[in-house]
Amino acid sequence: MSKNVQLHVGTADEMGQRFVDAWKRAEAGAEVNESHLTFIGLDTLLATLTNKRLDLLRHVHRNGAVTVKALADALCRDYKNVHTDVAALEEAGLLVRDGRKIAAPWDELQASISL
Fold first, then answer.
1. Cβ proximity of 114 and 11 under 8 Å
2. Model confidence band, residue 1 (pLDDT cutoffs 50, 70, 90)
3. Percent of the chain with pLDDT over 70
């Protein structure tokens, strides 16, 4: 099964409505197995998902990472910058840690922007 995360640029109300809709579907007996991340502005989404961070996500998804130092070495990047990127992606929910191991559990990021 493919694990996707849906990225949204929208309002807090829209985020809340997605939660309520999923809750109602679950209460009705439907299996709800979806992941959403909402960014309040496009600038926030783009600041979080820079090209370097997307490269980092792809690398971690394909290869995993034992430590930030090993990841920085594999990407031929400065440790401090990789550490900053890992922290930002982890805060956004796009990377997860198990002890020191770093994982990118998503197969695909799907983005939508509300008008």
1. yes
2. very low
3. 98
